Amino acid sequence: MCKNCGEEKFLVNAKGWCADCQKAKNRGENVNKPSTGHKKQSVEGYHTEERQRLRMANFERKKERMRIDDEVYLKVFNIKPHKCEECGAPLPDVFLCEDGSVMSRWQYSHIITKGSRPDIRRDPDNFNRLCMEHHHKWEFGDRTSMSIYEANLKIMEMLRERYKR
């Protein structure tokens, strides 16, 4: 059953939608309302307590991941100098904002990306502290031209040895 229109049809995407609903969305039609040639039936209870419960569970998991990440950022904050490791630009020397959140989370740059090796994401040795410009360059630019590249290659090798699969 399509989770959007409620009709018994073959589902075509991870959202649990039928081809008609997906096509309507692709055409830019409001798929939450009936569209020409495609009747939307209401699905009783779809946007109710169960959906809210799932949203809250996801939110709680994300908060817990961020709390654990913040503990690692504090370790990195305490062991690395308060300057960009590439250009020497000053970075915040205060860890928390007045509201209790981590200041400038962007300054903590993974050497080996979280996506490629999630098992290494929280190892303090897997971080550089970088200004925003150089964090962006490390993630999306020509990292081979960066002065930290050779040192990071050695760190990568050490981490891969430590976390052999």
Describe the model.
With 165 residues, the protein is mainly alpha-helical. It has a domain at 49-162. It has 4 helices and 2 strands; from the N terminus they run ααββαα. The radius of gyration is 23 Å and the shape is elongated. The protein starts with 18 loop residues before the first helix and ends with a helix. The model is unreliable at 33-42 (pLDDT under 50).
Spell out the key features of this protein.
165 residues; mainly alpha; two-stranded antiparallel ribbon; 4 helices; 2 strands; 38% helix; elongated
Number of strands: 2
Q: Looking at the structure, what is the overall shape?
A: elongated
Helix content: 25-40%
Beta percentage is under 5%
Order of SSEs:
HHEEHH
Termini Cα gap: 41 Å
What is the makeup of the main sheet?
Answer: 2 strands, antiparallel
Characterize this entry briefly:
The chain is mostly helical and 165 residues long.
Topology:
Blueprint: H1 19-26, H2 49-79, E1 108-110, E2 127-129, H3 132-140, H4 149-162
